[in-house]
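sanity check this:
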Amino acid sequence: MPMGRVMGGLFTVCDWIWKMALVNILWILFTLTGFIVLGIIPATVALFTVVRKWNMKETDIPISRIFFNTYKKEFLHANLVGLLMGAIGFFLFIDYRLVMAIGGTVQYILSILLLILIGLYLITLLYLFPVYVHFELRFFQYFKYAFYIGTLNIHITILMVAVLLLLSFPLSVFPGFIPFFSVSLMSIVMMFGSTIAFKRIEKKQKKFSA
């Protein structure tokens, strides 16, 4: 193999390592800038905006500028989305605690129903950020689209979860990589899987409209 190709390949690998580390660090910094609670959702939206561009083959982009501009632009709206999802998650947690305190057959039945609701909530959460950065929708449509796309492509959803769990293992073994490659790697997996699901939905829509 020519030395030029080897060096080119090494440069590409190093370039992507740098890009992933950069967006991961930016995510941490901007999350802290918003005192975590107000920073984590807009920082995640900014992260997925960058990753979406990579997924659309826009690799030579000003990462820091796009991240900052998206964070600033989406700060309020993204936090409203996060507030609603957080409220739903909180109520599910309270319901879980209440159900666990009941006991008996009623507890068993309610536990199954609650686990189904939690599963649907997590599916919606898995697709919410990819949907948010990919589509221009009204507020509640983001949740509706994320839910429908996740449930209608359940095989992709299961595969995404499996890959995310596999990624979490080496990160738990080597926690030193977490500040550099945790959320960036996971967002790439989520955006890639979601894009496949988006294309499947679009293909079905074109088929039915033809």
User: Anything to note?
Assistant: The chain has one domain: 3-209. Residues 3-209 form one domain.
